[in-house]
Write a structure and sequence with these properties.
The protein is built from one helix and eleven strands; from the N terminus they run H-E-E-E-E-E-E-E-E-E-E-E. The chain is mainly beta. It has one domain: PRC-barrel domain (SH3 type barrels).
């Protein structure tokens, strides 16, 4: 058995591209069913202004492939997973789109 506090000490890595996503900050729990629906990871890679909302990665429980001693391996394909911005009680879903230019990819 694993404790929720143990999960927050593990780094989350995407097995599709090998990128480190970050550390778990929160979890979405279904109290009626007694199960975890998703893990929430802050997106520390984006610059935020004074009035911008904090962006988070929401990774559904079925995307978790393996929970190891030090890392949690997840499968997120082609960067199309939604980011959730939260500010108090309000939530907005952003779906990043990859725009390919002649020399690089941007979000």
């Amino acid at each position: 058995m694993i404790k929720a506090s143990d999960l927050t000490e593990k780094e989350v890595v995407n097995i599709t591209d090998g990128k480190r996503i970050g550390m778990i900050a929160d979890m979405e729990v279904d109290l009626q069913k007694g199960k975890i629906n998703a893990i929430i990871i802050p997106d520390s890679g984006r610059l935020r202004g004074l009035f911008s909302k904090e962006l988070e990665f929401e990774i559904r429980w079925n995307q978790i492939k393996k929970i190891g001693e030090d890392v949690i391996l997840v499968e997120i394909k082609d960067g199309s997973e939604p980011l959730k911005a939260s500010s108090g009680d309000e939530e907005v879903i952003y779906i990043p789109k990859v725009v390919t230019t002649s020399s690089s990819e941007t979000f």
